[in-house]
Amino acid sequence: MANGEAFDHVCAELESTSSLDRLAARGTVRLALKGAGLDPATTTAAQMRVVVQRVLPRELEARGVSDAEDVCKAILESLGSLQDAVSGQSPEAVFARLGG
Amino acid sequence: MGDLAAALYLISTAAFALIAAVVGIRLLLLSRKTGQLAERLLGLGVLLTASLGYGVMMVAAVGRSMLSDPSAPSALYTYITTAGWIFHNLGVMSVVGFVVHVFRHGVVWARVLAVVMSITLWAGWALHVFQGGMAGQLPQGGFWITFAIIGTYPFWTAIESFAYYVRMRKRVALGLGDQLVANRFLLWGIASLTTAGSIWFVTIPILVEGNLSQVGTPLSAICMLVTGVLGIATVATYWLTFFPPAWYRRQFSPEGA
Description:
Low-confidence stretches of chain A: none
Structural class of chain A: mainly alpha
Number of strands of chain A: 0
CATH topology of chain B: Rhopdopsin 7-helix transmembrane proteins
Strand content of chain A: under 5%
Distance between the termini of chain B: 43 Å
Largest sheet of chain A: none
Mean pLDDT of chain B: 89
Low-confidence stretches of chain B: none
CATH architecture of chain B: Up-down Bundle
Largest interface: A-B, 20 and 31 residues
Number of domains of chain B: 1
Mean pLDDT of chain A: 88
Order of helices and strands of chain A: HHHHHH
Shape of chain B: globular
Oligomer: heterodimer
Number of helices of chain B: 9
Helix content of chain B: over 70%
Shape of chain A: elongated
Number of strands of chain B: 0
Distance between the termini of chain A: 26 Å
């Protein structure tokens, strides 16, 4: 999973399981990813799981979403079935190879 | 002080060229194994700029300075200098290509900027050749057009590396990244800055006094000394980036952290 598929998936789930509209849902997920040093276009499902567990709850609470923990649990379950394609093109993957 | 500065400058440049050759060849061998363009571009960039480019130009500069009249035209050193410049400029294009491919893949403004930089680099160099730059004439307009690229492209590399290092630190804090890999972005950013520093300091005497070979002047001696120190810092940083020794790796392991 790449090219923003994990991002789109989480945004859609957040929109359907919370009081946030589409724009607010996408903005919130973007902020969560920025806080984790990730880019929406390249974030994998595995990385997204960590963000949903550890960063997204406080972003939702900051926006007044009362059931933030439950929303994140639902999103996490929906992410469970998604698989990642292995990418050797990201800067992180390239720099990991450079040092042997 | 002038002789010491010149000696340090020559030694550090030779060490820089040698280490760059080792790094460049290693990266090219890695690219053969992985089939990836990123390491091929960086390998060519390091090998062509630092090793073949500066190395060959240094041979020409030293050889020319040993002539009875260094300002007299010498076909041999003109050819050697020309070869060094061509290697160097191709290397600059490879490094810029690496930055675009790795950090700005598919981003239109980055591609356009890379093309503009390449055209400016070669156009300025062609003018520098026409103005007698390869034959040891004092740098004129063509040199400074070329320098506009040579003196700035490492900053692009540094900015991208430092920005990615900041992102990697956030990932590491969440358990999403490797500390050693994150540190590699920091090192590559530092190496880019020390490279830029070397390029700028070695050029100051050319700007102020017109000729680097006048090592007797205090300004030239100071600039050579600083360039030499920056060259050694670059070499050390390259080594930690591409050949991190066990003691350095341990700093970033869970036990060492």
